[in-house]
């Protein structure tokens, strides 16, 4: 069923069961790859909360969970400027940090995060993102764990919002008639 959010219409794109299946595969890969490490999942708020919640339960390793809040979107467009919304005080030094994002779109937010997190002297930094838009991506860094590569259309659901609404939808929707 299509969703009407603010002034826009969104159509079903990725089902809840496909999402859950894929997140379990990512969790199993991470379980294999980080045995014996001091692991931290660093969720980027707000968008990552649902993905992080499912992903952490699919990883069978001891791990810490931490959060950082940044923001750069207004409506369906990036402002190009990443704002860190609150201070960050957790200890990441010597730990393996997996940055957990809902989406890497232009890549501006992740570029900011990679630079910011290195200041905390982690042993290693990896990236897990639920979604990736290769046609919108403007950078060269590589992504370690990607749920789904998607076309360059605005999406909502599973944590992602359009002007603050739509995050609680358990499946993913894409904008109707967008380019
Ligand atoms: O690759 P980019 O073009 O930078 O887009 C990705 C970023 O945009 C969204 O954040 P947003 O600013 O909407 O904040 P939110 O997570 O609170 O919704 C998303 O959660 C990523 O952080
Ligand atoms: O397609 C998107 N949907 C919601 N939030 C976003 N932030 C970057 N890209 C998107
Ligand atoms: Mg947003």
Each distinct ligand: 1-O-pyrophosphono-5-O-phosphono-alpha-D-ribofuranose, hypoxanthine, magnesium ion
Q: Which H/E pattern describes the elements?
A: EEHEHEEEHEEEE
At the fold tier of CATH, the topology name of the domain at 16-31 and 38-70 and 92-150 is Rossmann fold
The proportion of residues forming helix, as a percent range, comes to: 10-25%
* The CATH top-level class label of the domain at 16-31 and 38-70 and 92-150: Alpha Beta
Structural class: alpha/beta
* Strand segment count: 10
Low-confidence runs = none
Mean pLDDT: 97
Strand content: 35-45%
What characteristic shape results from the CA principal axes? globular
Measured between the Cα atoms of the first and last residue, the distance is 21 Å
Strand order, largest beta sheet: 5-4-3-6-7-8
Subcellular location: Cytoplasm
Pfam families: Pribosyltran (PF00156)
Family: Belongs to the purine/pyrimidine phosphoribosyltransferase family.
Domain Phosphoribosyltransferase: 21-162
What brief labels describe this structure?
binds 1-O-pyrophosphono-5-O-phosphono-alpha-D-ribofuranose; binds magnesium ion; six-stranded mixed sheet; 179 residues; Rossmann fold; 36% strand; binds hypoxanthine; alpha/beta; four-stranded antiparallel sheet
What does this structure look like?
This protein has 3 helices and 10 strands, in the order E-E-H-E-H-E-E-E-H-E-E-E-E. With 179 residues, it is an alpha/beta fold. The chain has a domain of 108 residues: Rossmann fold, CATH 3.40.50.2020. The longest helix is centred in the N-terminal third of the chain and has 18 residues. Bound molecules: 1-O-pyrophosphono-5-O-phosphono-alpha-D-ribofuranose, hypoxanthine and magnesium ion (MG). 1-O-pyrophosphono-5-O-phosphono-alpha-D-ribofuranose (PRP) binds next to strand 4, strand 6 and helix 3.
């Amino acid at each position: 069923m299509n969703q009407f959010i603010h002034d826009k219409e969104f159509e079903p794109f990725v089902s809840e069961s496909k999402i859950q299946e894929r997140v379990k595969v990512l969790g199993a890969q991470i379980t294999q790859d980080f045995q014996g490490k001091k692991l931290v999942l660093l969720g980027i708020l707000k968008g990552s909360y649902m993905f992080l919640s499912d992903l952490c339960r699919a990883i069978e390793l001891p791990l810490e969970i931490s959060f950082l809040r940044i923001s750069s979107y207004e409506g369906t467009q990036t402002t190009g400027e990443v704002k860190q919304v609150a201070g960050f005080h957790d200890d990441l030094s010597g730990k393996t940090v997996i940055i957990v994002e809902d989406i890497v779109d232009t890549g501006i937010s992740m570029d900011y995060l990679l630079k910011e997190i290195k200041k905390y002297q982690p042993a290693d930094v990896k990236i897990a993102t639920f979604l990736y838009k290769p046609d919108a991506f403007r950078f060269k860094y590589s992504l370690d764990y990607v749920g789904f590569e998607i076309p360059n259309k605005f999406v909502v659901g599973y944590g992602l919002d359009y002007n603050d609404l739509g995050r609680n939808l358990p499946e993913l929707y894409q904008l109707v008639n967008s380019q």
